[in-house]
Amino acid sequence: MKHWFKDGVFRAVLRNAGYLGSTKLLGAGLGLIALIAAGHALDPVTFGILMLVHAYALGAGAITKFQSWQLIVRYGAPALTRGDTATAKDAIRLAFGLDLSSGLVGMAAAMVALPFLAPDFGIDRDHLALAMLYCTLVPTMSAATPTGVMRLLDRFDILAKQQMATPLLRAGGAALAWAGGFGFPGFVVAWYVADICGDLILWWLTVGELRRRDMLDGLRPGLLGTARRLPDAWSFVWTTNISTSLSACWGPISNLIVGGILGPVAAGLYKIATTLLDSAGKPADLLTKGFYPEIMRLDPSSKHPWKLALRTGAIAGGIGLLVVLLIFFGGKPFVGLFGKKYLAAYGLLSLMMFALMISMATFPLQSLLYMVGRQRAALAAEIAATALYLGALAAACHLFGLNGAGGAYVLGNAALALFMLLPVWSSYHGRARYAPAPA
Does a structural domain hold residue 439? Predict the structure, then answer.
C-alpha cells in the first residue's frame, strides 16, 4: 500500500474524502442525537410517523430530481482543465435549470399525491397537515447544483464545513423540542428548519465562490439552448438521473413499504437500523465524492483509473469489515441509546450489516461506467437491482416480518454489486477502444 500513495490522484481522492470526513462523522453523530431525542420524547407510533413524513419528502425529491452535480463534473471538469470556462458555466446553467424545474414539479406532485397515499404509508389524518407542509422542502432537498459547483472547483473544504449545518441545527431543535415538551409538531419544525437552513447556507457559499472566480453568471438557469452546446447532454442527464434517483430512493421507499405492510412501529425500527448503516457507510460516500471528479480527468484506455478503483475499493472494503465487527460487538448497547423499546432494531441491524461491506467495497463501479460513457449499463443494473430488491422486500415483509426486510436489503445490495461488476469487467478488457481521439 505504500506504493499506492505515490499516485497523486489517489492522494487527492483521500484528501478530499478527508475534508468531508472530518465533519461528516460528527454530523452523523449529531443526527443520531436528534433521533435519540425524538425516540425518548415520542411513543413508537408517533416516532415512526415522524420518520415516515421525512422519508416521504426525501422519496419525492429522490424520484423527481436530476443528479445535476454529476452533469456539472462530467462537462465542467474537463473544460476547466483546458481553460474553457464557457462550457463549465453552461454545465452549471443546465444543472440549475434542471434543479429548479424538477424541484417545483416534485413538490407539487408530492403534495397532490399525499392525501391519497398517506393511509397506505401509515400517516394518519391528524398528522396530514404537517406532512403537507414538509413537502415544501422538496425543491431545496433535491437541488444538487451547489454541491456540483463546489466539487468542480475543488472546494471540498467549504463543503466539509457546510455539511455540519443541518445536523447541528436538527440536533439543537430536537433537544429543544424534547426539553420543552413540544411533541410531534415541535420535532417536525426542528427537522424542517434544519433542512431548509442547511440548504440555504450551501447556496450562499456557492454564490460567493462563483463570484470570486468571476463565474456568477453561470447561475442563470438554462435548459434547451444550453443543452445543445453540451454534446450528448440529454442522454447523460436522463440515464444518470434515473439510475442515481433509483439508488437514492432505496431508503425512503423501503421505509414506506415497511411502514405500509408492518405498521409505523416497524417503520421506526427499520429507520433506526438504516440510519445507523448509513452513518457507518459514510466513508464510502466520501470516497465516491472525491473519486468521481478525479477519474473524469483520466484516460480510460490506460490502467490508471482502473487501478485507482481497485485501491479505493479495497480501502473502503477494509473499513466496511471493521465497521461490521464494531456493530457485532458494540451495536446492541448503541441501539439501546434510543431507548429499551427500540432494542429490537439490533437484530435487524446485525442482519443488514453484511450489505454494508458489499456496498462499500464496490462503490467505484458506477463511476467507472460513467467514465467510459456506459451510463446506460449503470442504469440497467440499477433498474434490475431495484426491482429485485423492492419485490423481495414486499414479499419478505409479508412472509418473515421485519427480519425479512433485513434479508431483502442484503440481497438487493449483493445483486446491485453483481449487475454493476459485469459491464465494468467487459469495459476493462475492452478499454483500448476508449482511447481519446488525436487532436
Answer: no
